[in-house]
Specification:
By secondary structure, this protein is α+β, with helices and mostly antiparallel strands. Helices cover 36% and strands 18% of the residues. The site of flavin mononucleotide has 9 residues, from strand 3.
């Protein structure tokens, strides 16, 4: 599976060098994000690229689950536009945005960047905190924050394959 090793090498990175992600790489990540599948091709995802140290520090205060955001030095806030989602459904929108998050994280691994998914949904206080911080319109819903940057730790090839989770042709 050599050509797929970048997927197995992806791991949640929580230690970073603090180096800025180059504009070209950030642009590539945004392009792969918007290549994700989305219900009825509604593409309800929206993104805020964050590389401002003060704003990252503020976001870190709002998200106690991401104490390494400032060290990462880069983040992408993934949001969904509920007005644009299929059936105006939050559940469809979260699935669409999650597919975009995963595309970003796998591409980041391929580009030798580290990343970590910081959950925002469904925690009310995090949703409120992020919404207020960015002064979001009512229809724009925070889904997740991706911490991004150059890893200050080794990535270890790993597989969590479990044959018990797989069924063929019947449960
Ligand atoms: C929906 C979701 C929310 C997550 N939230 C956090 C988080 O708030 N903080 C964090 O450090 N990691 C978070 N993670 C990362 C998981 O802890 C991590 O993916 C899991 O432990 C597996 O490790 P790996 O990513 O290294 O394979 C989240 C992952 C997902 C899918």
């Amino acid at each position: 599976m050599n050509n797929l090793n970048f997927i197995f090498n992806r791991q949640s990175v929580r230690q970073y060098t603090g180096q800025k992600v180059e504009d070209e790489k950030m642009d590539q990540l945004l392009h792969v994000a918007m290549a994700a599948p989305s219900a009825r091709k509604k593409d309800p995802w929206r993104f805020i690229v964050l590389q401002d140290g003060e704003k990252l520090a503020k976001l870190q205060e709002i998200l106690p689950n991401g104490p390494f955001l400032t060290e990462a030095a880069n983040a992408i806030v993934v949001l969904g536009d509920l007005n644009e989602a299929w059936d105006n459904s939050l559940i469809y929108m979260i699935q669409d945005c999650s597919a975009a998050v995963q595309n970003i994280m796998l591409a980041a691994a391929k580009l030798e960047l580290g990343s970590c998914w910081l959950g925002v949904q469904p925690k009310e206080e995090r949703i409120k905190g992020v919404s207020e911080f960015f002064n979001l319109p009512k229809n724009i819903i925070p889904i997740a924050v991706i911490a991004l940057g150059y890893p200050a730790c080794e990535t270890i090839f790993k597989s969590r394959y479990n044959n018990n989770f797989v069924h063929y042709n019947r449960w």
